[in-house]
Recover the amino acids of this structure.
């Protein structure tokens, strides 16, 4: 029998030790987190939680270009410009909006774009103001 999604992250012994009520409670927590993630994806990080929920380095860019914070969060290592535009389309952004968002993110040094055309490599950068 497959392991339910809400029990997969638990060590096997702990998952086996839970009673039915604890399993239901854990499943409800898992379902609520999934719902919140879907809502945030559909409406946008800043639209769900407000601009104050965004890291400071993304607030001004988000005010300028809505959904930029979501775009920045979803760019994965090895993404090409075509991939980023596809992500932008899923977020409801036009190609022009994605390009404007990338320009704003480049100005803030939060992304680099290497190359030209749809095959250009887009890489997210940690903000210089964060002490790593």
């Amino acid at each position: 029998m497959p392991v339910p999604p809400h029990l997969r992250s638990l060590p096997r012994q702990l998952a086996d030790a839970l009673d039915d009520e604890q399993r239901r409670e854990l499943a409800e927590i898992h379902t609520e987190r999934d719902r919140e993630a879907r809502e945030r994806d559909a409406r946008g990080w800043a639209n769900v939680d407000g601009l104050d929920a965004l890291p400071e380095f993304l607030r001004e860019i988000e005010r300028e270009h809505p959904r930029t914070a979501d775009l920045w969060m979803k760019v994965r290592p090895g993404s090409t410009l075509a991939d980023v535009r596809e992500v932008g389309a899923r977020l409801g952004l036009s190609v022009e909006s994605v390009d404007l968002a990338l320009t704003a993110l480049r100005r803030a040094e939060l992304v680099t774009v290497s190359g030209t055309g749809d095959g250009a490599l887009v890489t997210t950068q940690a903000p210089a103001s964060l002490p790593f």
